[in-house]
Amino acid sequence: MIAIDALMVCLDLSDIDIKLVAFARSICERLTVRKVYFVHNIKVYELSDEFKEWFGDVDLLSEVEGSIQDIVAEQFGNVTDHEVLVSEEPNTEVILANLVKRYRVQLTILGKKMSDKSTGALGSKLLRVLPCSMLVFPETARLDIQKVLVPIDFSDTSVHALRLSKNLSDQSNLQLEIMHVYRLPRQFFPLISEEKAVKKAVEIVKKKFADLQKKHQEIANVPYTLVRAANKSIAERITLHLEKGGHDLLVLGLKGNNPLPSLSLGSVPTEMYNTDIKVPLWLVYSGDVIKQAT
């Protein structure tokens, strides 16, 4: 069973905040979440002189806190214990990383606007500095989740993401599909026919799946799909499969091999984050990685 002691929701006072708070509510209704922190950091130095002249000595922190509390009251209610935290610090990444460590946050929800509206620079930074798993919610995503896709490469990190996804699907009665994207060793063509190479590659991957199912019998009946990368990247193949399969959530494991304080996303999760997908993206660090980072 998935139990989250502390969940953090990052708000930016834009229209997406309402969806993020409502999404947090849906998570709390599906999973055991003990406390939720709704957070926002005010960068006072970014306020224009015109703003300061118009509003004078207004208590901006209290005003922002009140605005967020109104949204939380309307969209979240009293589903579980929660708290609104508003700060005034020059560096948002630092203050949020400190909150994660102070309150032992296990999962952070982060909104993501489409690329034509935002560069996503802050989100990219947060993904690398927050010592916890991240759930990225695009502004076009639906709140209701019924079908989950978890791509794996048979590494320990992807297997961890798969087992979490299986727990999630069992706990919330969701459909789960495993996906693996494989490449052919093109340097051997035309010495080996492409048909034989594809047959051999599929044979090898199926053997890996069989071994994985023997080791983790709880995933033995989960359907899996093999997709050849061909002339596209792994992330592009995942995106196409998401659109074709009508999935509502994508789960990816994160490696965390880089020296602290940075955490390593890996090339595929990074590319997926920078893609305008329309489903939430759950980027999962294992517990061991989190311990090393804190």
From TrEMBL:
Name by which UniProt lists this protein: Universal stress protein family protein
Transmembrane region(s): none
Family label: Belongs to the universal stress protein A family.
SUPFAM superfamilies: Adenine nucleotide alpha hydrolases-like
UspA domain span: 146-269
Pfam families according to UniProt: Usp (PF00582)
InterPro entries: UspA (IPR006016)
PANTHER family the UniProt entry points to: STRESS RESPONSE PROTEIN NHAX, UNIVERSAL STRESS PROTEIN UP12
Organism: Rufibacter tibetensis
